[in-house]
Structures are given as C-alpha cells and as structure tokens.
Amino acid sequence: MTAQSTDVAVRSLYSRLLDAWNRRSHDDFAALFTDDGTMIGFDGSLESGAARIRGHLAPIFADHPTAAYVAKVREVRPFGPDSALLRALAGMLPPGSARLNPATNAHQTVVAERQGEAWRIALFQNTPAQYHGRPHLVEQDTAELSELLKNGTPLH
After folding, report:
1. Average pLDDT in the 15-26 region?
2. Which domain holds residue 128?
3. Residue 19 Cα distances to 13, 16, 65, 68, angstroms
4. What letter would DSSP give residue 66?
C-alpha cells in the first residue's frame, strides 16, 4: 500500500467516524474500532473494545442532543504499510445553531491499523483545545473551522 493510498484510507476511516457520531449511531461508531481499540473522550472517559465503546455511547446518544463535528485533518502519517496516525482539529456545532461552540474545540488523534483490506481504529483520542491563557488560539481555530461550515465542507 502506498503512502497516498494509506492517506486516503485513513481519512475515509476518520470521516466515517465523524459521520457515525453526527448521525448518533453508536453501532456504526463502535464498529470502526479494532476489537481491543480504545476511545478517550473529551472529558477524559476511557473505553476499550468495540462493545464497551458502543455501550458507553448508547445512553449519550439516547439521552442528549449531541453536537455535530466539523473537522480539518492536519496530518496523516503512515508508520508502515499497516498503521498510521491521523491528527485533526475539530469543533462542534450545537443542535439548532449555525455557530461553533469554541469551548468544545479539540485536537483529535486516530491511530489506525490495517486488518486485511480494512482499516480500523486502534486509538481515538479527543483532547480539548483550550489553550489556557491564549484565547487568540481558540479564536483562530474557531475561525478556521467556521470557514469549513461557510463553504459547506464539514470535513476537510
């Protein structure tokens, strides 16, 4: 597999992850993980294994109107033919709003692994981008992500 095809495959995997979240599908979200994959949430919650990830998200999607992700991939770095790292900047669009909530901007990291012909998520980490004491960086990130919304491209 070439670096370019790895880039395309891992970006597609990430896109499907965000799409599953935005559709509030805990089943589709969890199905993207390896059997022992790990998810570290925005609040620090940690779940390992597709079944536990599914179980963690099911009540969240059932009981809360979750915000939708808007994201920009910063980097896809292959570690060989069967693994890669993806880094992205993500923001969240609250239900019924046309503006991103800067307090929920995050750096998202995906460690992906190829299993046969399919790529799966070994690790998804969602880290708050709060930049303590540097509000101009929050504003910069929000402006960059808002441009994606304005252009009708929630994932770039």
Report:
1. 96
2. 3-150
3. 10, 5, 15, 9
4. P
